[in-house]
Amino acid sequence: MKRIQKIILGAMGVALLSASVSAGVYSLMERRSERRMASTEVDGGAFRNAAMGFDMSRSVGNAPDLVPAAEASVHSVVHIKVEGEQQIDQSYMDPFEFFFGGGSGSFDRPSSRPVVGYGSGVIISTDGYIITNNHVIDNANKISVTLNDNRTLSAKLIGSDPAGDIALIKVDAEDLPTIPFGNSDALKVGEWVLAVGNPFNLTSTVTAGIVSAKARSTASEGGSKIGGFIQTDAAVNPGNSGGALVNAAGELVGINTAIYSRSGGSLGIGFAIPISIVQEVMNQIIRQGRVIRGYIGVEPQDLTPELTEALQLPTQQKGAIIAGVMRNGPAEKAGVHTGDVLVSIDETPVHDTTQVLNTIARLAPGSTAQFHFLRNGEEIELPISIGMRPDLTTRRERQEQEGRTPGGQRQQH
């Protein structure tokens, strides 16, 4: 009996000792866990992840509420339908005559056929002025605008700018909803934006994303458009052309104009014309019916580290290298050479191709500007008489340079 009591008492002692040790270990772990949980609290303990012990002490911020911006902007974005004609080959072999003979071997068919295109536009004034892309309404015989309240109105072309891919049209209406203009120059990479338009004729479509990059340039001075595009990953598809790029405050910061795609659909790389450029073009169209830009006839290229080293320039050298000079253009007449490095225009430093393109475009034709270059390690200054930027003359030339996809949305390669 005593032997059994000893065994029981011994077992109880072991159990008490084990419980004491376990309590001590648990207390130590709990204190450590509390310290770890304290380091992972976000917004006053609304979120905890003590199990992994991640350091979440940095503020991650909150995504903005985009609902008010979306609700306000859809009323000012319109659906545009254009009707026109496409030229076709007038002569081809008649299959009947090919097999059975007789006749001339060919016959005439109509020289054109009707075509219909679609796009988007943004109401910028209560009395019916609408901004869209030039390629949306190019060669249109008839333009129809459908408002968000389903009213369809006839529109007339006020003026267009093929180089900037901007067009201004107008409908006869009053008290139309508009979007306030924002400051596109103040946009930050990573800022939330909305793309509002009519992709694939799906009206009043809103997609969200961020500003992926700024000041994107995709053409030379003699090419089809001015640089400085806003790049966004908000989904942009055929039919979005001419639609609005809106910031989280519901302000218009750009006009959607192009996508980078190998399939014709969105790959998360879209481009919008900054509203600051749109305003300049719009004001010129209203004042003088067209847009006049400065031109000197050069093809600038960004000064990369490899080019900087090859040209034996200082490592931090800013500017743009002249990759090509147009024959008989203002720059060639002034003595600009291929390989010159442009560092300033009228004592204003230039840092990249986009700045060069936009600065030259703003110069008044007929004026003279001082261009500062580096040539073979030496500084030179050349006065250049500013010419007028020529327009591309035909639709085919514009399409070849723009790489346009069907449905009113340009595609970049």
Q: Which range does the strand content fall in?
A: 25-35%
**Gyration radius, to the nearest Å?**
32 Å
Enumerate the strands of the largest sheet in spatial order, edge to edge or round the barrel.
Answer: 1-4-5-8-7-6
End-to-end gap: 95 Å
Tell me what the structure shows:
It is a single chain. The protein is α+β, with helices and mostly antiparallel strands and 413 residues long. The protein contains nine helices and 24 strands. β4 and β5 form a beta hairpin. The termini are far apart.
Task: Offer a few descriptive terms.
single chain, about 425 residues, alpha+beta, six-stranded antiparallel beta barrel, about 25% helix
In short:
The chain is α+β, with helices and mostly antiparallel strands and 413 residues long. Helix content is 24%, strand content 34%. Strands 1-4-5-8-7-6 form a 6-stranded antiparallel barrel. The chain has a 6-stranded antiparallel beta barrel with strand order 9-10-11-14-13-12. Strands 16, 17, 18, 19, 20 and 21 form a 6-stranded antiparallel β-sheet that branches.
